[in-house]
Write a structure and sequence with these properties.
By secondary structure, the chain is of the alpha/beta class. Helix content is 36%, strand content 18%. It has helices at residues 20-33, 59-67, 83-97, 116-123, 129-133, 138-152, 161-171, 185-190, 246-259, 276-285, 294-299, 316-320, 324-340, and strands at 3-10, 42-46, 73-77, 102-109, 193-195, 198-199, 209-217, 223-231, 268-270, 354-361, 366-373. The protein has a five-stranded mixed sheet with strand order 1-7-4-2-3, sandwiched between helices. 58% of the residues are buried.
């Protein structure tokens, strides 16, 4: 049974004063309005942290009541920073296998209400407890991955800068992005060190935001062609190689096989660029270029909106913002909007027929890959 994205609702990312439920309701209302408020059978909600008043307790009935969806069935999911992608996969597979005809998929996060040290501790919950006990944080592990990658392929730290320049330039075209001003390579290089080789502008920012999509049975201009996911050891010390994410390679293989497509048929891509080096690794793991080649793709602007393969046209995590539970669905929503011709100021020039979204949990312990197409399978 084919499933397609019938409508998308996205709120503005950044520092928001609204509580979690109101952020979620804003995006959900936009998506529901896009289908004329037709009945919804299933509500799937994802949030990683669930901050704010009533953020974690009884979130589903609070949202169902707020949106008038008391008659729908409901599920809540969590997969660290891939939570939004998991919510989409759960809804798509549930619709395909069961009697429900329409699902509202909603992913949201409220982060800016916590001080940075407290939020850093909470985000570290996505890591292995033995490494956290030794002082590991997401940023420290991102820096370790970056260092290994640069060393293996004999690259300088400045090779990371074009990733951030690209992200901010695309975010500047997206009215819902947290960062609406482009930056130069010099500004990236001169931003303060966070955990070398990572500097401030190599890292995604603390953000609030919500995204919603309505999924319906049947073909549409953004049909689900392929889904894939994979796991890798949670503890980085148990991995044989830190310059690639095995979970992404496995998820991509499964998604391509499910869609009966190859990477050559993909016309637009959403990568999980929580840190600039992740974008390089992601592009390689998805098969779009060989090991160590991704830096040249960004340096030569082959990933631009009018380039060989448009990447993160709405800014990605570095440009759009990274409300952790929402980002995975934001990437899928961006691909759906590109295929439906609804991306507005950040629409790519090539009118792609197939798009791919990838989302990482933590430092790649779990990956989701979603392939959408303008024509059903």
């Amino acid at each position: 049974m084919t499933v397609h994205v019938a409508s998308v609702g996205v709120g503005r990312f950044g520092k928001r004063t609204e509580p979690l439920v109101e952020l979620a309701a804003e995006a959900a209302s936009l998506a529901l309005e896009g289908i004329g408020r037709k009945p919804v059978d299933l509500l799937v909600v994802g949030t990683m942290l669930g901050h704010g008043p009533h953020g974690q307790i009884s979130l589903l009935p609070r949202l169902a009541g707020r949106l008038g969806l008391e008659s729908a069935a409901g599920l809540r999911v969590e997969a660290a920073s891939a939570t939004g992608a998991m919510a989409f996969h759960v809804a798509a597979e549930t619709l395909s296998a069961g009697p429900a005809n329409r699902a509202l998929v909603l992913a949201t996060e409220k982060m800016t209400d916590l001080a940075t040290p407290a939020l850093t501790r909470e985000l570290s919950g996505a890591l292995h407890e033995s490494e956290v006990a030794a002082g590991a944080t997401m940023t420290a592990w991102g820096a370790l991955v970056a260092e290994r990658y640069l060393q293996r392929y004999h690259l300088g730290e400045e090779e990371l800068d074009p990733v951030s320049v690209h992200a901010r330039s695309r975010g500047a075209t997206n009215p819902n992005a947290q960062f609406r001003k482009p930056v130069t390579s010099t500004e990236v290089r001169e931003s303060r060190p966070v955990a070398l080789p990572l500097r401030l502008l190599h890292c995604s920012a603390i953000s609030d935001g919500a995204v919603a999509v309505v999924l319906e049975k049947g073909d549409g201009p953004a049909s689900v062609l392929g889904l894939g996911q994979g796991f890798e050891a949670l503890r980085l010390g148990d991995r044989p190689d830190l310059t690639t994410f095995a979970a992404t390679r496995l998820a991509a293989q499964r998604a391509y096989e499910s869609a009966h497509l190859t990477r050559k048929e993909v016309g637009v891509v959403e990568l999980h660029d929580a840190f600039a080096p992740f974008a390089l690794i992601d592009l390689e793991d998805l098969g779009f270029c060989g090991p160590g080649e991704a830096a040249s793709w960004f340096a030569q602007r082959w990933v631009a909106a009018d380039g060989r393969l448009p990447v993160n046209p709405g800014g990605g995590l570095l440009g759009r913002g990274h409300p952790v539970g929402a980002s995975g669905l934001a990437g899928i929503a961006e691909i759906a909007q590109q295929l439906r011709g609804e991306a507005g100021s950040h629409q790519v020039a090539s009118s792609p027929k197939v798009g791919l979204a990838q989302s990482l949990a933590g430092v790649g312990a779990q990956t989701f890959v979603t392939i959408l197409g303008r024509e059903g399978p």
